[in-house]
Amino acid sequence: MVTIILLLSCDFWAVKNVTGRLMVGLRWWNHIDEDGKSHWVFESRKASPQDSKTVSEAESRIFWLGLIACPVLWVIFAFSALFSFRVKWLAVVIMGVVLQGANLYGYIRCKVGSRKDLTSMATSYLGKQFLRQTTGDDQTS
């Protein structure tokens, strides 16, 4: 049980700090400022001609497939442990779900961006569309 939790922790660290940055150009972390407030930082590498050489489509698909499949697998393990009444293994399974889920959540936030950015982008886009329709400036291409 201890070995599995240690391996889960090593996997969490490796995915968060190494493979995410190298395979897809994404990273996330927690920063605590001088006031003691916690700030989550989600970064995505800027697209440049050199990045297309370093980040391949196949590596990106493998990364995302593994990132999505692992939490699903741990949830299946959780139901299996729960319904077979193996409560002692439930702690390990919950640890797996939490660590893998945290990585999935962090990388989705990196890929999509923060919700504030999405809201402001959507509002800006809808505002432009509304303005274009009210002024009669329909550009068809």
Automatic annotation (TrEMBL):
Pfam families: DUF846. It is a multi-pass membrane protein. Belongs to the TVP23 family. Keywords: Membrane, Signal, Transmembrane, Transmembrane helix. It is found in: Membrane. The keyword Disulfide bond does not apply. This is Golgi apparatus membrane protein TVP23 homolog. InterPro entries: TVP23-like (IPR008564). It comes from the Eukaryota. GO terms for biological process: protein secretion; vesicle-mediated transport. The keyword Signal applies. The gene is LOC102985126. One of its GO terms (cellular component) is Golgi membrane. The chain crosses the membrane at residues 62-83, 89-108. Residues 1-20 form the signal peptide.
